[in-house]
Amino acid sequence: MTSHSADTSQSGSIDHVLHERRLFPPSAEFTKNARISSVQQYEDMVAAARDTRDDFWRKEALEHLHWFEPFGDVCQWEAPHAKWFVGGKTNACYNCVDAHVAAGRGDKLAIIWEGEPGDQRKLTYRDLQIEVAKCAEAFAQLGVGQGDVVSIYMPMTPELAIAMLACARIGAIHSVIFAGFSAESIADRNNDASAKLMITSDGLYRRGKVLPLKETVDEALAKSTSVEKCLVLRRTGGEVPMTEGRDVWWHDVVDTQPGELAAVPLDSETPLFILYTSGSTGKPKGILHTTAGYNLWARRTFEWVFDYRDDDIYWCTADCGWITGHSYIVYGPMTAGATCMMYEGAPNHPAEDRFWDLVERHKVTVLYTAPTAVRAFIKWGDEHVDKHDLSSLRLLGSVGEGINPEAWMWYHSKIGGGRCPIVDTWWQTETGGIMMSPLPGITPTKPGSCTKPLPGVIPNIVDELGNEVDSEHGGKLCISEPWPGMLRGIWGDPERFVEQYFSDVPGQYLTGDNARCDRDGYYWIMGRIDDVINVSGHRLSTIEVESALVSHPHVCEAAVVGRPDDLKGQAIAAFITTTGRDTDDEFLKELKMHVRKQIGALAQPDDIRVTAALPKTRSGKIMRRLLRDVAAGRELVGDTSTLEDLASISQLQESE
Ligand code: WTA
After folding, report:
1. Where does the Acetyl-coenzyme A synthetase N-terminal domain start and stop, copy by copy (predicted)?
2. Atom from ligand 1 closest to the CA of residue 512
3. Nearest to 8, CA basis, from 311, 417, 426
């Protein structure tokens, strides 16, 4: 692989991707059995969702969600505020769990789980119903009720999904924090959301080692002002200190409940969860999703895009700490009644064939993973794949960043055996579910393109001023009409919500991505407009990392940019000025650890360069474009005449 191919946000690779001409139509066999099996069917849905939006979604909602009480208006839209299925009462946990038991499908497997050490558990929908009810009963005992925020910092065990669903069952709001974040990050999120309960485990397994989650949580809780109780799952069996009056064991307070509590009928717009994500400022935003619209969007996009069938064994390899895990491990597939694989650990433990071993043993039919994982598999070598029979697979998915054509081809031929369509799904934490993707029965795919919008998604490409542009040329990607799964706000910050997402083009949602639409109506995502970088499919704001660096007493100024990386898509490159302290390797190591401690391992800079001064424009802005070139080892191009300190540039280049 060439170094630029992994990074679609760099101009070199945009050309590369956009000149992709190969077309892969679905096989007649796949099309014949597909849920959406003709272009006409898709076009009719698109037209209905566009021209008769309310009728379209009324029918969808009545058919695909359970209603305790009917809704009135389908959509009330006063940009940027949307209400869907107004006045209706439903419950996302009921839709995910109880509905299947009520319909006589209680014996169907909901979760096939495998822990990293190889332990296994299988839960039917009926099992899940009992476990979720027990957890909800424990919440009541711990003083948690409707509207309270519950922070979840857990390994990928069934209890993580159970805890999320238990919140939904009673109208508590979950805020899942990926179990790689630092104590600082947990405390920030707890405080921002005024979380009342924290759920964690003694530890988690990662590459054969135990990571001490409870220790990190204890440190976080010392700084979390609102958290009253901490519920602890025993996973690894290690000794952990329990704080009297605050900490309780899962097996003491959850497992001992009767498991009878019914799902509470909740208003359609009841907050379902908050999920923190990076934006263009240093402070992560708590993206708010509500009950009915999100639930419907997750379900229908899951069924359309993954061509869901009752006998599928579906595996999304994401962690529930990210939106992909929320929508495509829990709410989408479970509302559809799917059997979901869930895996706790690393893809290369005990060996690099762990995923393929899982696919073979559990006969996985649909696999949804990220380009960064695909690139790692390529690097590890085909021999790990060749050992296994992957013939159960019928469909492959990709999410998190653009999948470069080389990785696409490998995924297609090596994993998919040339027979599985690939759905390259474009979406965001804010959109709640997939927005653009091939429909596997009908859409001829082009490697590197997320192809076309799903029904109900109306993309619009605009220029700097918000005017519509020639979409072949490309520009900022907006969505011009509301859709059921859209975010409803930023927790505690209504102004930022409007300013960030709806101020560029009045009334339209600004995605933050650049995109281009080709002559066939296929969309190509060209990377972020803002200061967000995408490291292994995870969103980070450069400013967040800069703030962490500057909080070190010996760092004066910091500038962080993404640089192309074969494996991660983008790596983090930092440029700093210091107080003059000796800047040896020890110091750089200490700084990396400092960022790790402030945000988490995923934000640790890959390289840090110390410089006498950062290149700035005359108005004092750091010239990031230039630093990106330096970080990528590219020749400096363009106009550098406004540089205040040219000397610093030559020094940066020398230090490479
Ligand atoms: C990027 C993840 C190209 C994009 C679901 C978006 C993609 C950000 C794709 C959202 C894709 C995600 N092709 N780019 N198929 N999928 N992205 O909120 O820049 O973690 O804005 O949601 O990831 O990241 P988030």
Report:
1. 42-96
2. 21
3. 426
Q: Residues 394-416: what's their mean pLDDT? A: 95
Residue nearest to atom 8 of ligand 1 (CA): 428
Prior bond to 605 cis, omega within 30? no
- Order the strands of the 271-277 sheet from edge to edge: 247-249, 229-233, 197-201, 149-153, 173-176, 271-277, 285-290, 489-490
- Cβ of 436 less than 6 Å from ligand 1: no
Q: Is 450 in the pocket of ligand 1 (CB under 6 A)?
A: yes
Q: CA-CA distance, 274 to 151, in Å (whole number)?
A: 9
Strand 339-343 to 475-479 pairing: unpaired
Query: Ligand 1 centroid to 212 CA: how many Å?
Result: 30
Instruction: Give the residue whose CA is nearest to atom 5 of ligand 1.
Output: 428
Give the residue, out of 372, 500, 534, with the most ligand 1 atoms within 8 A of its beta carbon, to mutate for a pocket test: 534
Mapped onto helix, strand or coil, the DSSP state of residue 143 is coil
- Establish whether residue 429 lines the binding site of ligand 1, counting it when its CB lies within 6 angstroms of any ligand atom: yes
Two structure tokens written together for 519: 């002559």
| pLDDT single digits (tens) 328-351 | 999 999 999 999 999 999 999 999
58-to-61, 75, 498, 555 alpha-carbon distances in Å:
5, 9, 27, 56
Task: State the pLDDT at residue 581.
Answer: 77
pLDDT digits (tens, 9 = 90+) for 171-210: 999 999 999 999 999 999 999 999 999 999 999 999 999 9
ipTM of the complex: 1.00
Distance 402 CA to ligand 1 centre (A): 8
Helix segments in 381-434, DSSP class H: 383-386, 405-410
User: Per-residue pLDDT for 20 more than 80?
Assistant: no
Length of the chain: 656
Whether 8 has a pLDDT exceeding 50, the answer reads no
Distance in Å, CA 604 to ligand 1 centroid: 21
In 400-550, DSSP assigns E strands to 422-425, 459-462, 475-479, 489-490, 509-517, 523-528, 532-535, 538-541
Pocket mutation for ligand 1, best pick of 426, 510, 533 (most atoms within 8 Å of C-beta)? 426
Q: How far is CA 647 from CA 102, 613, 629, 653, in A?
A: 72, 9, 16, 10
The SS3 of residue 42 is helix
Distance 446 CA to ligand 1 centre (A): 18
- What angle do the packed helices 39-51 and 53-64 form, to 10 degrees? 110
Q: Is the CB of 293 under 6 A from ligand 1?
A: no
- Closest C-alpha among 40, 56, 509, 135 to residue 296: 56
* C-alpha 547 to ligand 1 mean position (Å): 24
Is residue 425 lining ligand 1, measured as CB closer than 6 Å?
A: yes
The pair phi, psi for residue 426, each rounded to 5°, is -100, 130
Percentage above 90 pLDDT, the chain? 82
17 lines ligand 1 (CB under 6 A): no
Q: How many whole angstroms separate alpha carbon 650 and alpha carbon 572?
A: 21
Structural domains of the chain, ranges and CATH numbers in brackets: 530-654 (3.30.300.30)
Give me the half-sphere count of Cα atoms (radius 13 Å) on the Cβ side of residue 93.
32
Q: Output the CA 512–ligand 1 centroid distance in Å.
A: 10
Distance 400 CA to ligand 1 centre (A): 4
**Average of per-residue pLDDT across 89-110:** 98
List b or e across 325-345, with b for residues whose CB sees 16 or more CB atoms inside 10 angstroms.
bbbbbbbbbbbbbbbbbbbbb
